[in-house]
């Protein structure tokens, strides 16, 4: 692993995962509307460390609104306007010339329920290993990520969210890459490895890297709603897989 980086600096991006926060505007114009994306940092073993939500606000002629949510920190990403943050939410008073408005909210690690939780483990040459001790290791490094569906989320997230897990492996000091069930594609001097799972599916992604000096920039996990076109096939795919199993 490169100096100063983690073995699994996992970056979890969940698009449109949480319902839009309740927004009210102080004018007769149509209410503001919001699109949200959640970004979650996990530790080496899959535990949630940090959650941030980036919000894109369509003001629809308003320049004042209140977002009712509990946030630890709020950051303006568009201009110099300062938020008014209380325990009940955050209020904004923006310049009238403001177009689409972006801001970031930091949440407590336990503030959101994700469609999957993750349990990550490691082996070096077949022997269980601590993530912190794998930097620069020589041999076969195995990363196993168990994805466990969350039964407490809404039916929409259980039935419509697709899971993708990917990483880039630099082949300069790498002898082999084995990733059963993944799509592996050569991209320049690297290999792109992408796993996928259907909504509500419990599965384990396993990747084995034969290396002279192990390093990684981490893994990217995405949970995104399927498109309307994809939804036509997801139910049939799940039913077929259940029959096969």
Q: How would you portray this structure in words?
A:
- The strands form 3 sheets. This protein has a 9-stranded mixed beta sheet with strand order 6-9-4-3-1-18-13-16-15.
- 9% of the residues lie in helices and 49% in strands.
- The chain is elongated, with a radius of gyration of 21 Å.
- The N terminus and C terminus are likely disordered.
- The protein contains 2 helices and 18 strands.
- Strand 15 and strand 16 form a beta hairpin.
- The protein is mostly beta strands and 245 residues long.
- The order of strands across the largest sheet is 6-9-4-3-1-18-13-16-15
Question: Mind describing the biggest β-sheet?
Answer: 9 strands, mixed
Shape: elongated
Helix content: under 10%
The chain-level mean pLDDT equals 84
Concise synopsis of the structure shown:
With 245 residues, this protein is mainly β. Helix content is 9%, strand content 49%. β15 and β16 (190-197) form a beta hairpin.
Topology:
Layout: E1 11-15, E2 22-25, E3 33-42, E4 48-58, E5 64-68, E6 73-76, E7 84-86, E8 89-93, E9 101-107, E10 116-124, E11 127-128, E12 139-149, H1 155-160, E13 161-170, E14 174-178, E15 183-187, E16 190-197, E17 203-211, E18 220-225, H2 228-244
Parallel strand pairs: 1-18
Antiparallel strand pairs: 1-3, 2-5, 3-4, 4-9, 5-8, 6-9, 7-8, 10-11, 10-12, 12-17, 13-16, 13-18, 14-17, 15-16
